[in-house]
Amino acid sequence: MGLIGLGRLGRVYARDLARLIPETQLTAVADTIPDLASRVAAEFGVPHSYVDPFALLDDPSVDAVVVVTPTHTHAEVVVAALDRGKPTFCEKPPALNLDEALAMQSAASRTGVPLQIGFMRRFDAGYAAAKRHIEDGAIGKVVVFKSSSRDPFPPSVEYANPRSSGGLIVDMGIHDIDLARWFMGEVRTAHAIGGTLAYPELGAVGDIDNAVVTLQFEDGRLGVVDLTRNGIYGYDITTELLGTAGTLRVGYLRETPLLVMTARGVTHDTVPYFMERFEKAYVTQLQDFARAILAGRAPSVTIDDGIKALNICLAATRSRESGRPVDVVSPQASVH
Amino acid sequence: MGLIGLGRLGRVYARDLARLIPETQLTAVADTIPDLASRVAAEFGVPHSYVDPFALLDDPSVDAVVVVTPTHTHAEVVVAALDRGKPTFCEKPPALNLDEALAMQSAASRTGVPLQIGFMRRFDAGYAAAKRHIEDGAIGKVVVFKSSSRDPFPPSVEYANPRSSGGLIVDMGIHDIDLARWFMGEVRTAHAIGGTLAYPELGAVGDIDNAVVTLQFEDGRLGVVDLTRNGIYGYDITTELLGTAGTLRVGYLRETPLLVMTARGVTHDTVPYFMERFEKAYVTQLQDFARAILAGRAPSVTIDDGIKALNICLAATRSRESGRPVDVVSPQASVH
Amino acid sequence: MGLIGLGRLGRVYARDLARLIPETQLTAVADTIPDLASRVAAEFGVPHSYVDPFALLDDPSVDAVVVVTPTHTHAEVVVAALDRGKPTFCEKPPALNLDEALAMQSAASRTGVPLQIGFMRRFDAGYAAAKRHIEDGAIGKVVVFKSSSRDPFPPSVEYANPRSSGGLIVDMGIHDIDLARWFMGEVRTAHAIGGTLAYPELGAVGDIDNAVVTLQFEDGRLGVVDLTRNGIYGYDITTELLGTAGTLRVGYLRETPLLVMTARGVTHDTVPYFMERFEKAYVTQLQDFARAILAGRAPSVTIDDGIKALNICLAATRSRESGRPVDVVSPQASVH
Amino acid sequence: MGLIGLGRLGRVYARDLARLIPETQLTAVADTIPDLASRVAAEFGVPHSYVDPFALLDDPSVDAVVVVTPTHTHAEVVVAALDRGKPTFCEKPPALNLDEALAMQSAASRTGVPLQIGFMRRFDAGYAAAKRHIEDGAIGKVVVFKSSSRDPFPPSVEYANPRSSGGLIVDMGIHDIDLARWFMGEVRTAHAIGGTLAYPELGAVGDIDNAVVTLQFEDGRLGVVDLTRNGIYGYDITTELLGTAGTLRVGYLRETPLLVMTARGVTHDTVPYFMERFEKAYVTQLQDFARAILAGRAPSVTIDDGIKALNICLAATRSRESGRPVDVVSPQASVH
């Protein structure tokens, strides 16, 4: 396996691929920052390291590629990997605009090489169990999807700039939107409200810090997603499936199994951030990718999933800007 | 105190006024159903009983009136009570349309007689504590209001008919909307989606059983309310105030302090319905009304509160029907 | 109903008997503190008030008596009531020594007049539900009984003096010991350790503030009770029934349905004290007493229950003092 | 690092040492079961494998040894490792009798080679946080230690036989007893009750399945530990530290972050078994051992800790058999 992009998440993937996943051997890492790849290679015993991602793609020891580069570079790297016949895993979101995402789709389609998108929540034990309970009929027909994502602190203004992040709804909401599709099916209309209410510096670069997105699915069922950058108390990801015979809630808040009980009340801590909350989901996701390739089966999460989730996020973003609900038109229809 | 209307909630009020609230003496009850008032009078030792509500209003032993009649009769009874100079408590919603609510407001204004509206959640210990925490600055500035109301089973189709209930958003949502105003201030725009997803029979009379309402407050802050009739697992009322320095959650699910732990997991029960959840809030509310009258202070919750909450619910109902956000125009401007 | 003893709990009983329990009419109250009975009578509209408890017993309007006087006076008042043929409810513990308790038992037996002892936890919804679950076989055979009682602050040294309170294990533990018998049956051996670890002033009057009591039931099953006066975080009463097919836990900690979530963690409040925790159990208990009398059925909790629980507490107290396990010998055999 | 013993826990240690702990390189594995070591070596890329544990001890690539063999073999293997100058980690309990444990202590003392005992709960994030909170004074002086260990199913009768397991109190309770010493200090007296109440087949080989152990510490403070093999609902490890200014509780029950909410109540799952509950503690423990060796510092948990905990468990076992409290006499005095 080759790994391109060694930022914070990239280094976690390096550890996972090198150590935790028996199915994979990490043979090459690449990052455009000088020396970074060689340092990571030394730390995890990886034979080859590159500054040039495309050099890694040409490394014959690399049977498949994991791409964790900045989002605006996904399309170029992924298309190059697919053109070389290397099964590719691409971190979410697939791209910041539909054109690039559709180019990735075309390459996957043209080459027939597998391309998996990193919607890791599907691999979390809680979400997976919820899916099984629904399939088993435990809560009847699901009629409302409700999801909430909260970061414990704001991103840097550089990161938050919508030109690189896509803005709050794309950057943060795409996970919830993917879950919405996974649990409920396709979305007909999106409406969003939002604002820069807690961190004015984010407004200065054009981003918002809070949003509420409502979704009406094609069959009339309902969805709502709320997003915030000021989840001060901890990283909090919660999803609820309200059904005609019961309800499922996925999410938890406690990190340490300790309760502190004093005259001021009973207090527990919270999950620090996404790495802690989804540590196992990230491993399971890469393992699933590796197993899909080894077994010759299609990826669990495809570029179509990436495009459709992105398309809904973009519709919601436009709704937030215009103040009006936006119909979610199939992206294939909207571009060439 | 005189009590008009002896349905389920009316009988609870009879018990509360007769037994639990030291400040009040229940001297008269009335209900148009023959014999009902006399039976309730006998049960609680009330001296006078009436079939005609207006006869009760003329009873000289009655210093103040509690009105728990069907909503469409509120305006007539309340205006008559105010005209007789009797301080009046009126169950929520004040009316099903703004004209009637505005007539109640005019009567209160013209006579100067106190009129309190029954938004009892403000008197729940949890909501009251949340209000104090916010005033104490415990969570900084509140930027998102999030509330959920769930009934454990659907109403009868007779009850649910929007001509008598006002429809889901008025009937059920007005409590959450009142909390929204109480915690956040005035609403600028409402948007709603909804549908009849669980109980088709409700659709046959023109009602929906699930809705999601988003609110943008006048200062740009955000709100979202979800409502359902299929909260199968129990009566579940939850409100969250997301602030810049912390978050408050009001709500609880357990009724009996018992955990059943078997190989099938750890299970607890839930709150059966609103009487159990808000039993004390109902008592505190009537006590607050009695104390306001005795102390000569203005009611804690006024007909203005009732009109504004109703107006937002009606705007959200129109939004749900039209598919478009609706600006919440001050009702005084929109009529006469 | 007549009520003797108007301390803190007595006044709550006055309110309950006067207002909350439809089956009862409170016609007389008595307390040896001058004016106290007349003031309480005025507050709750009680026709007769007495300084002399025995005068109340002779009041013909009194059909039954509730005794909430200091424990060392129980025997004299209760025997006098029974001798006058008045069904009697006596607050726990029945007495501080077995001789007095056995005298009460003799009087009940001799007169055939009902005598109920105030083990109110049996009337708590949680404990009652646990009992039903066990009878329904939900957890198989119960093999371990585990209970914990914690006061949020220490009693006054006057109260705590074992000469009036009986000491920690009698005063506080008798509720848990009664539950042990109710759920498990008779006790063969008790062993206790304890000490004055938090409040040295309690040690000065001969009491301890923490204890752990182990019980072996006659059939070999196990029990453990821990007691503390330094439950600083709130009033906490928890009981667990560990069975061969599952486990039940009774208890809860939250008072207000509010979570405060900040960077310091997620905090909830706790139950202040026994009145808040068992408010409804006290009402249900008196209602059960009234219904038993009206229906002519035997009391739910008898003086035999009181004697057996007291006997186990006294055995555990001796064990704590001697450092050795103590066999629980039937009290009838040990006296007379 | 060399690893001896490749049963269930041994294979987890193999994975941890080979993959998760950057400080270690697993160069040799040994197990007396033919082929097992070579298979594990192949799975984790370990260069050397042995059937004879003593051959592994002579392998020059082995700088330190982890011993996870059956308890009755610990002493022989550990002494041999220490005599060869190899720092040794030995799984708990150190031995089944004090003679063997003291022999290990002598070897460690004589050779000056580090010997660490596997009380892994000390490395769990919850227990570690509790320790810090106590040291920070968050709950004042701790006066009661309360701990509970529950297995979700019984062991095989072969395993449970006290001749190999030491019996319930040694086999299962030694973790709680170690925590008792770690948090509270030395124990003066132990008393235990217990029985074979759920699984008669365990009684047939001389073991019990439930026990309650009370401890009085040298300074008079209190402790209680309850142990069961019939924690049917899941693996449940809970410890409470009751202090003069607050209380700490360590423990959690949920495995998947999913709540299933239906008309039957609100249900969550539980932790399956010790591997899931303490997965990270096991890794942290081995990492701590490796770091201690590399840094030349003394082990965090010594053979003295092992001997003292074992000694208390043996005293409690004798108390359970005799029905009397047993003084915990320093083991050095009692032998040799």
Describe how the helices and strands are arranged.
4 copies of one chain form a homotetramer.
Chain A: E1 2-4, H1 8-20, E2 28-30, H2 36-44, E3 48-50, H3 53-57, E4 65-67, H4 74-83, E5 88-91, H5 98-111, E6 115-118, H6 125-135, E7 142-150, H7 157-160, H8 162-165, H9 168-171, H10 173-184, E8 187-195, H11 200-204, E9 210-217, E10 222-228, E11 236-243, E12 247-250, E13 258-262, E14 265-268, H12 274-277, H13 279-295, H14 303-322, E15 326-327, H15 331-334
Helix pairs in contact in A: 1-13, 4-5, 5-14, 10-14
Descriptive notes:
Four copies of one chain form a homotetramer. Chain A has 336 residues and is of the alpha/beta class. Chain A folds into two domains: 2-121 and 283-300, 3-Layer(aba) Sandwich (Rossmann fold); 122-278 and 306-334, Dihydrodipicolinate Reductase, domain 2 (2-Layer Sandwich). The first copy, chain A, has 15 helices and 15 strands. Chain A has helices at residues 8-20, 36-44, 53-57, 74-83, 98-111, 125-135, 157-160, 162-165, 168-171, 173-184, 200-204, 274-277, 279-295, 303-322, 331-334; strands at 2-4, 28-30, 48-50, 65-67, 88-91, 115-118, 142-150, 187-195, 210-217, 222-228, 236-243, 247-250, 258-262, 265-268, 326-327. In chain A, the strands form three sheets. Chain A has a seven-stranded mixed beta sheet. In chain A, strands 3-2-1-4-5-6 form a six-stranded parallel beta sheet, with helices on both faces. In chain A, helix 1 crosses helix 13 (279-295) and helix 4 packs parallel to helix 5 (98-111). The model of chain A has no long low-confidence stretch (mean pLDDT 96). Chains in contact: A-B, A-C, A-D, B-C, B-D, C-D. The A-B interface holds A 139-141, 143-144, 146, 189, 191, 193-195, 197-198, 210-212, 214, 216, 220-224, 226, 228, 230-233, 242-247, 323-325 and B 139-141, 143-144, 146, 189, 191, 193-195, 197-198, 210-212, 214, 216, 220-224, 226, 228, 230-233, 242-247, 323-325.
